[in-house]
Structures are given as structure tokens and as C-alpha cells.
Amino acid sequence: MLTDTHCHLADQPLFDDLPGVLERARNAGVKAMVVPSSSMGDWERVASLARRPGITAAFGVHPWNAREGVDLPSLRNRLAEAVALGEVGLDWKVDVPRNIQMDCLEAQLILARELGLPVLLHCRGAFNELLELLKAHPPKGAVIHAFSRGPELMRRFLEQGCHIGFGGAVTRAGAGNARASVVEVPEDRFVLETDAPWIGVEGGPSEPSSLPRVAGTVAFLRGVSRKRVEAASSESADRLGLL
Question: If 162 and its partner were Cys, which of 100, 148, 149, 157 is the partner (CB 3.0–4.6 Å)?
């Protein structure tokens, strides 16, 4: 079974073509999808998607939206119907004050730890700071999603107990760092994702039906069958509680 552990079905253009997106995913063998939120404003839409078979939800406030703050009582209520907290994290590439991002993430990590939920993590340019927060507030489980960096940094997150999420970036021939990490990641510590519609595959945009291409690339790079890669990813997603 193929599991897309991170896809934004609540975002355009996917939401406007939801029946087609879901049919294409099923035809491609993608049987389960995890849909994270980005802001409090899309929680209800994500919740409505998770009422469909094969779709599970994650709720949180993305660092790009950290200025809005986090209504922790409302988030706690939403998380009662979720498999993870996310998408949350740190991003030093955007114009949101770092202290606001740190406070927003820390509050959510504390809540995730209290509730025993895994966390779906976004990070750009703030890896040291993210690692320090994870050490201070270690969650039940975590996925560093859309990972595109090299093995040295990957190993630091593995040592912290994280799983590594690989998506469309690895399909690009020039993504040497991400591809090197694909080769070295332990078989029980990675998951597959698309981050659709935000990260495309080589040559075009993505949606959950693009996941077989990601799986095929990972299998080619690791020198194993695609079936083995798909099984390893789904087993990790299951252990994390994402299914």
C-alpha cells in the first residue's frame, strides 16, 4: 500500500478538483493520505477532508502563519480527531520574526508531547534551532518533511528519533544531497510524501498520484524493489500512528 504522508488537499488547485485528485490517487495505488493544515483558518476544511475514507488529518500552525499565534484550547480540541500535529516548524527564509516562530513552535511541541502525538515538521535554514527545541520537548515521533539536505544533517535528526520524509525533490537529477540521504537512511526511518501541490516532481507539478514516481526513484537509488520501498514507508507511517 502506498501512503502519501504529507499532501495539502485543502489547498488549491487540488481542493477544486478533489474527486479527480482522489480518483487518480486510487488508480495510482495510493490508498492513504495524511493532510496537514497550515493555519487556524483551514482547520475546518482539513477536518472535512478527514471524514473521507483513507484520509487522516494533522492540525497546527505553520511558521509562515506564526504571527496569528496559536489558540491552544482550540488546537487541543482539533487534535482529538487527528493523527499528528502539523504542519509546524521554523523557517528563517521568510519575513516572520524568529522569536515569534520559536514561541509558536515551542507551544505546539509541548502540546504534542502532552497528547502523545507525532509532529510533521517544516524547516528551512533553522536546523540547529529546531534540533534544540526537539531536544527540549521531544515528541512521541516526528517527520522532517520534504527533506532535501545531505546525510550529515539527516543523521542529527535520526539521532533525535525523527523520521525523514522524502518527496518530489529526490526525482530531480540535480538533487545530489537529497539523493545521498535517500541512499543512507535506515529502511525503518523514512516515509514517502508529495507535499502536493507545493513541491513538484521532475518535469512538472505534483498531486498524490505522483507518489509512485517518488517511490520508484527511492527504490532505484537504494537498489531495491519499489514494493520494498512502499512497504517500508507504510510500515513507518503505521508505527508513527499516521494511518
Answer: 157
